[in-house]
Amino acid sequence: MRRHRRAKIVATVGPASNSPEMLKRLFMAGVDTFRLNFSHGTHEDHAKVHAAIRALEAEVGRPIGILQDLQGPKIRVGTIRDGKITVKAGETIRFVLKGADGDKDSIPLPHPEIFAAAAPGHHLLIDDGRVRVEITGLSDDHIDAKVLFGGTISNRKGVNVPNTVLELSPLTAKDRTDLAFGLELGVDWVALSFVQKPGDLLEARGLVGDRAGLMSKIEKPAALERIDDIIRLSDAVMVARGDLGVEIPHEEVPGRQKELVRACRLAVKPVIVATQMLDSMVAAPTPTRAEASDVATAVYDGADAVMLSAESASGSYPVEAVEMMDRIIRSTEQHKLYRSIIDASAPGEEQTAPHAVAAAAAELAEVIHSTAIVAFTSSGTTAARIARKRPAVPILAITSDRAVSRRLSLLWGAHSVLSADIHTYEEMVERAINVGQLEGFVRPNESMVVVAGIPFAQAGTTNNLRIIQVS
């Protein structure tokens, strides 16, 4: 089964999509990686979905990625008297650390890390920014603030602190339990929420090791200030535009998205663009034209994958949403301007032999009109280096590592195939031809460009380039 597009589709699993039958329909419609959102559902729920995906994988004979998305810390106000209060612009209100009555003079905010890090002039955003206040004064146990945008504050509403770096681990006790469970199941990716600084990834890496790819969700302004180091320490990145758009001005989000996609492409790391991509399809069978353009923009930017959230998790039209995403991607990639836009955003070359070989393979395949670039890869890096060039021909990534084959389902342009190790040059040529023909990438009298590392099956040795003419 071959996808006739380069960008991948990630779909969130939820009540609308967690049955084996619906998972199969979603995969057949175009899903490449399934996201398990651990903010919702029980371990038993996620275990059933994981098992169903692995059974589906065996049935269709194609690697399928599974992404575990950890909840992360949730900063919320406490209990409000009568359930809610209304505040107006210009009013002064007070947040208290403890002993609250839940009125305008004592809104409970049981998060000492905010009191430790906040300063006058910083803003607090309540309920996704529907209420915005500016801190005017504070002590160890209270914060005084002026209301900038009024509204209703009700029980347990979320609080964002965009100007403040909190001394808060991105891994809560719940996350650690969930992570251990997910790794035991065998998830392929772990997405880390609330990343603020590079050190947050070191803590997570110590727990994940090499058992899964570590993905940073970029949703905090502080992360943007250290983004190069965060990308370097990550295996992939998610542009979590929903939460990020709460904490930075809306007009900055599109530019930041382009910056992040380009930075990840430069660093040879997969990047997902996420949140509200086809949000209208939660309740309607078609998206708005603006949403279709939004998905196309991510594809033009060169994102490795685009993601569905509520559309596939709880919406009324999960299959239709995937089908629409697939159609938008294919239409965009076939547009006459797509190639020139992608080429114009290409990052500079890395001055290393492996990058040079991968870049040469991409250019050579286009010049001689090869039908595919075959990448023999033990860690996925060879395929990723080729994908960095966003070549006009597909990448057939052959690996002997099942975990790598599943992670490659997130990589732009890569069609991953699980195959036994090769040991000789002749075996490499024979395997490339056999797999290429079996997977529908090459026919007689056509050519493929093959990239490998010698010695074979040794990570990080992309050093060999060959043209194969199929007889």
Number of strands: 21
* Mean of residue pLDDT values: 95
Structural class: alpha/beta
Q: What's the total helix number?
A: 17
Low-confidence stretches: none
The value of Rg in angstroms is: 24 Å
Major sheet description: 8 strands, parallel, barrel
Question: What portion of residues belong to β-strands?
Answer: 15-25%
Shape: elongated
Which strand order does the major sheet show? Answer: 1-2-3-12-13-14-15-16
Share in helix: 25-40%
Outline the structure in words:
By secondary structure, the chain is α/β, with parallel strands linked by helices. The chain is built from 17 helices and 21 strands. Helix content is 37%, strand content 23%. The chain has an eight-stranded parallel beta barrel with strand order 1-2-3-12-13-14-15-16, surrounded by six helices. Strand 18, helix 16 and strand 19 (414-418) form a beta-alpha-beta unit. The relative contact order is 0.11.
Helix-strand layout with pairing:
Layout: E1 8-13, H1 20-29, E2 33-37, H2 43-60, E3 65-69, E4 84-87, E5 92-96, E6 107-108, H3 112-117, E7 123-126, E8 131-138, E9 142-149, E10 151-154, E11 159-160, H4 173-185, E12 189-192, H5 198-208, E13 213-218, H6 221-225, H7 227-233, E14 236-240, H8 241-247, H9 253-267, E15 271-274, H10 289-301, E16 305-308, H11 310-313, H12 318-333, H13 338-344, H14 353-367, E17 372-376, H15 381-388, E18 395-399, H16 402-407, E19 414-418, H17 425-438, E20 447-453, E21 462-469
Parallel strand pairs: 1-2, 1-16, 2-3, 3-12, 5-6, 12-13, 13-14, 14-15, 15-16, 17-18, 17-20, 18-19
Antiparallel strand pairs: 4-10, 5-9, 7-8, 7-11, 8-9, 20-21
Helix pairs in contact: 1-12, 7-9, 10-12, 14-15
